[in-house]
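Quarterly update, task 2.4: iron/sulfur cluster-bound model.
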Amino acid sequence: MDEIKLAELQRISDSFETATPQEILRWAIETYRDKLTMATAFGAEGCCLIAMIADIRDETGITPDIFNLDTGYQFPQTLALREKMQQKYGIPIRFVQAKETVQEMEARFGGPIYKTDSDQCCRIRKVVPLKDAVQGFDAWITAIRRDQTPERATAPIVGPEPKFNLVKINPLANWSKQQVWDYIKANGVPTNPLHEQGFPSIGCWPCTRPVAAGEDDRAGRWAGTAKRECGLHLSDDGTLTRSNKTLVGSAG
Ligand code: SF4
């Protein structure tokens, strides 16, 4: 992505600092139309965005692509929620799967590798399938909030995603967890029942545990290891999405 385009994305991102998630989503949907996609694991934020997208679809007639990375290790409650969301909002949600099944992968490695090499496991079951799934799209929506973790605190609202050659849009960047749950309650949005059992962030069952009071929302993901992200939101240098300013400054 050249410097002019990066500067333009930064200008757009700055202009959305006081916008609502719905305003940001509407801009994204009307700008990128059928070249816009979104990956979701049906966390509270993802469900909130799907409900907002359904409202905008009703007004504009445009439905962006939505998909779920079906790793083979998702909780049954997550799989059931996908059905519920499709039925309630009438939006098809694609299942995107790795080339080999969990059984085939575990046979190849002599057993599960989520404990011994979680980076490799995430690469096979999430990052590679996601790279394939976003081919042909120009932009993707994520459910990142800045106050989720220190790593996410500098995420722009609109910025480049060099790893996948996409524009990355984070409509909930400025929303708090409370705002997400207020929206969910006010609009009757279905959510994963595991949230009520102490799981604020839900990924694959082998790598997710409930969090204790005072821990950050993602503390239950890959608990006991230094891993904080599965790789979907990491640049090749291992950092989370860098600010546009940093990228503009380093683009030359
Ligand atoms: S989160 Fe765990 S089980 Fe899921 S792909 Fe990554 S390492 Fe494998």
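Highlight for this quarter: DSSP finds eight helices and six strands in the chain.
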